[in-house]
């Protein structure tokens, strides 16, 4: 199914955001504050993932996207990277069973070729196992980068039609090749850990997302913190380029 593009038409705004995308940041600082090794923060971060998946599903979110490892995170010390890989494997083995029991569909997006064959196999198995589920879709962005996504989409687009007339390229030609074409654009973007940046997350899809930043470190983010983000979201006026007056009386002025 092709989803509405926020730049081509005005999407509906719902009380509960349909798609929530989260940069789970601050694990290392959470641990350092407690005089623990950084990786202890990553372990606790997985507990927070569990809590937020559960709370999101309970609130009626349809798509939850979690940035787990960026294309730039390979720059970290080798022992931290290998810890994260092991944690990813553990999560794929253990958490997927629970997600499947809760009818959650799991997807993993990113340049997966850089992961070990074992991880790649676990990802395939998890996606296949949960493919028929009809509950919330949880997407894990792993070795993901927004620029990578745009480039791989362009490559796929050209591979399909090498003689493509440049003038014929519009959103509807490119967007189906983006890694998350199965989901609507995020309504709400959340970043924990205090930094106010996108860090190469969903560059195309965040065009009209509401942005929410909190100082809370990811391991401390829970259902109550999610509710604060949702409360902030409900205060926003999503204009998508229009004026406030048009939102009050949509039929009276302008076009869609
Ligand atoms: C986010 O927490 C997790 C990953 C990037 C894998 P960080 O590890 O970036 O934590 P801080 O930002 O150093 O505190
Ligand atoms: C962004 O966090 C990526 C993930 C949470 C997976 P980083 O901690 O890597 O981002 P920067 O380096 O502070 O921008
Ligand atoms: Mg960080």
UniProtKB/TrEMBL annotation:
Binding site for substrate: 26-30, 38, 42, 70-72, 74, 76, 191, 197-199
Pfam family, one: Prenyltransf
The protein's Enzyme Commission number: 2.5.1.-
Alphabetized SUPFAM superfamilies for the sequence: Undecaprenyl diphosphate synthase
The protein's required cofactors: Mg(2+)
Cofactor note: Binds 2 magnesium ions per subunit.
Binding-site list for Mg(2+): 25, 210
Positions of the catalytic residues: 25, 73
Alphabetic keyword roster: Magnesium, Metal-binding, Transferase
Enzyme class: transferase
Taxonomic superkingdom: Bacteria
MF terms (GO), sorted A to Z: ditrans,polycis-undecaprenyl-diphosphate synthase [(2E,6E)-farnesyl-diphosphate specific] activity
Quaternary structure note: Homodimer.
Function, as annotated: Catalyzes the condensation of isopentenyl diphosphate (IPP) with allylic pyrophosphates generating different type of terpenoids.
Assigned protein family: Belongs to the UPP synthase family.
Protein name: Isoprenyl transferase
Native organism: Cupriavidus numazuensis
Gene label: ispU
